[in-house]
Amino acid sequence: MKTRKYFPTAFGFVTGTVFGLSLFLLLSFTRLSPASSPDASSGAISASVAHSYFSNYMSGAVAASGVIKGFAIDKSQVDAINSLSAETPGLTAFRIYFGKDNNGGRMGIVVGVDNLGNDLVKNSIYGTPAQKFSPCPPICDVSSPIIFGN
After folding, report:
1. Across 1-15, 37-51, 129-143, least confident range
2. Model confidence pLDDT, tens digit, residues 126-137
């Protein structure tokens, strides 16, 4: 009779332990999503990787046919600019080059610029995913009061 008294408690403990371990193992050994792959992640890259991304972009780039009205950058690029600024307080500007990673994903290549206009490639260079990184046109707010007034 005592066995039945402790059975629900023991059963709950064992079930919870098995469920917890299963969940832990599932989360521990699940493959990273494509957005987390090395080619699509935001982080410091070497000048040679930056050149590779830039070359990938340039191999299929189309010349602009009109006046560039503005430019949109991703928050990840702003974060990269803030990191560069913290690393090297003497920077006078930042440059963002277009790039494509080895999977064809759009990238922004963020680098600090000195007072002579030179890229500081011996410092950190950041490769950032660029979902909304684009000049206007072609990606514009077609109803913006900045462009069209009130």
Report:
1. 1-15
2. 999 877 677 777
The reported pLDDT for the residue numbered 90 is 86
Alpha-carbon span 110 to 98, nearest angstrom: 9
Q: How many Å apart are CA 134 and CA 136, to the nearest integer?
A: 7
Instruction: Give residue limits of the domains in the chain.
Output: 1-30, 34-60+67-148
Using CA atoms, how far residue 75 sits from 63, 98, 101, 114, 130, in Å, is: 26, 15, 18, 23, 9
> What DSSP character marks residue 30?
P
Q: Model's pTM, two decimal places?
A: 0.65
For 51-89, the DSSP string reads HHHHHHHHTT-----S---EEE--HHHHHHHHHHHHH-T
Give 57's pLDDT tier (boundaries 50, 70, 90): confident
Strand, helix or coil for residue 128: strand
Task: With beta carbons less than 8 A apart as the criterion, state whether 123 and 135 touch.
Answer: no
